[in-house]
Design a protein that fits this description.
This protein has 121 residues and is mostly beta strands. The termini are far apart. The protein has strands at residues 3-7, 10-13, 19-25, 30-39, 46-51, 57-59, 67-72, 77-82, 91-100, 108-111, 115-120. It is built from no helices and eleven strands. Strands 2, 4, 5, 6, 9, 10 and 11 form a seven-stranded mixed β-sheet that branches. Strands 1-3-8-7 form a four-stranded antiparallel β-sheet, with no helix packed on it.
Length: 121
């Protein structure tokens, strides 16, 4: 029943500043860590940024100072503000969240279907 839905991807000019959103919906008891990952064609999926339930953040070195991850707990939504985009940022961006669905079970990882961000030079 629980699912994640990303939005905000598309074609962006180098130097642009789009914002990605990911909303969790369904029968969710709690949300722990949320994060963004990305995968370019022919490459492995890599971590971009994570944010804990308490607001602690971690970033991949290549996006530090350019990307900002945040969350709105009231709306079960995580955001990724991307600034100063480079062509090498082109990838499918995936949302990940650790969700607790049942009171008797621990949280488990859920993934969105991804949203494509293409950066043109």
């Amino acid at each position: 029943q629980a699912q994640l839905m990303e939005s905000g991807g598309g074609l962006v000019q180098a130097g642009g500043s789009p914002r990605l959103s990911c909303a969790a919906s369904g029968s969710i008891l709690s949300i722990n860590e949320m994060g963004w990952y990305r995968q370019a064609p022919g490459k492995q999926r890599e971590l971009v940024a994570t944010i804990s339930s308490g607001g602690n953040t971690k970033y991949q070195e290549s996006v530090k100072g350019r990307f900002t991850i945040s969350r709105d707990n009231a709306k079960n939504t995580v955001f990724l503000q991307m600034n100063a985009l480079k062509p090498e940022d082109t990838a499918v961006y995936y949302c990940k969240a650790d969700l607790q669905i049942y009171v008797w079970a621990l949280s488990s990882a859920y993934w969105g279907k991804g949203t494509l961000v293409t950066v043109s030079s």
